[in-house]
Amino acid sequence: MGKSLYRKRKAPLSGNTRSGRRRSKRTGLFAFMFLSIVLLTLSRINHDVVEEFRGGIAKLATPAFEVISKPILQLRRGLRNGRTLLTNVNELDRLKLENQKLQQWKWRAKQLEIRLNSYAKIIQAVERPPLGFVTGRVVSEGRGPFIRSVLLNAGRNDGVRNGYPVVSAEGLVGRVVNSGLTASHVLLLTDLNSRIPVEIGSNRTRAILRGDNGPAPRLTYISKGAKIIDGEDVFTSGQGGLLPRGLRIGKVNIGHKFYRVALFSDPGRLEYLSVLFFNTPGIDIADPTGASSRPRRLEQPVASGRKTPNPADSLTHAKRSSHTSSPASTGVR
Fold first, then answer.
1. Which domains are seen in the chain, by residue range?
2. How far is CA 308 from CA 235, 305, 318, in A?
3. What is the DSSP annotation of 139-190?
4. What phi, psi does 90 have (nearest 5°)?
5. Dist CA 257 CA 259 (whole Å)
6. In 3-state terms, what secondary structure has residue 200?
7. When comparing pLDDT for 40 and 297, which is higher?
């Protein structure tokens, strides 16, 4: 009996059963395709049903995605923090080594400063007085014989004189060539009429920085055999006494034909400039009329070359001269 039941279970399916299952599969496939086409059509026309369906799915899926993404975000954050930590460790080691070197240089600088002060006391050297300055704003570009120049809203009332150097935050810009009561004309280093004595590099090779109305002035009158390296610093030499020594100008840019200097300060983007009060005999020669002028903003009176006459003093002087005059002196012709 058991064998007969087992044989009935293992009996092959009939043709009607197979065809029914195939039809059900085809019907389900066609239904799925039809539903997909309907959904695509509704999504193309932006039907409200599709929008609500999408919103419901997004509302249900968002918490699940948040839960799943938290471990991934934590892993990414951990990897990022690990990389940053390794970078910071390497940077900390570098800074420690640099700090040790700076401490050594600091100790050497203190020793050299003590030695320099002792030498200055022995030779009774006169220290250079600190430079005063006044800061003004660039009003406009200059016009006239100087093509590369600017107009500064600081003049003789502020203590500005002809020949004073003008600097920006980056370095030397030019010098004052014409100062009025409230404004000054600043000749830039790039102007054709500009000539500045400079020194180049650690060897202090002397040259003349000459402008040619271009963005990078030229180095001329360089001594024969001088070795100039590209990128060396260029600063004022102080020769002639019109400019202080050591003002930053730019770096050497060796071109195809001339030695040029890439300026630290951009002449086309000047806004605030400072005029240095560098009073030397050379400045007195360049601007003799402004030797007695003092800035009013510092509450110092401006010296006047003409004294206002007092009527009482003139009358007293006339009486004294009439009493002291002798006949002999009055009779001489």
1. 29-127 (no CATH), 134-290 (2.40.10.340)
2. 47, 10, 17
3. EEE--SS-SSEEEES--GGGT--TT-EEE-SSSEEEEEEEE-SS-EEEEETT
4. -65, -40
5. 7
6. strand
7. 40
Contact, 178 vs 163, CB < 8 A?
no
User: CA dist 22 to 15, 17, 26, 29, Å?
Assistant: 11, 9, 6, 11
Name which of 251, 246, 261, 273 is nearest 169 in CA terms: 273
Instruction: Assess contact for 206 and 247: CB atoms under 8 A.
Output: no
Tokens at 197, concatenated? 């004595």
Query: Using an 8 Å Cβ cutoff, are 160 and 154 in contact?
Result: yes
Report which secondary-structure segment, H or E, holds 99.
Answer: helix 48-123
C-alpha distance across the termini of the chain, in Å: 178
E-assigned strand segments in the chain: 132-141, 149-152, 165-167, 172-179, 184-188, 195-200, 205-210, 218-220, 233-236, 248-254, 259-263, 272-277
The HSE-up count of residue 259 (CA atoms within 13 Å, CB side) is 23
pLDDT digits (tens, 9 = 90+) for 202-255: 888 999 999 988 889 999 998 888 888 889 999 999 888 888 889 999 999 987
Q: Which two tokens stand for residue 158?
A: 């502020």
Please identify which residue in the block is written with the tokens 């390794």: 86
Q: Which of 172, 179, 200, 177 is nearest to 187 (CA)?
A: 177
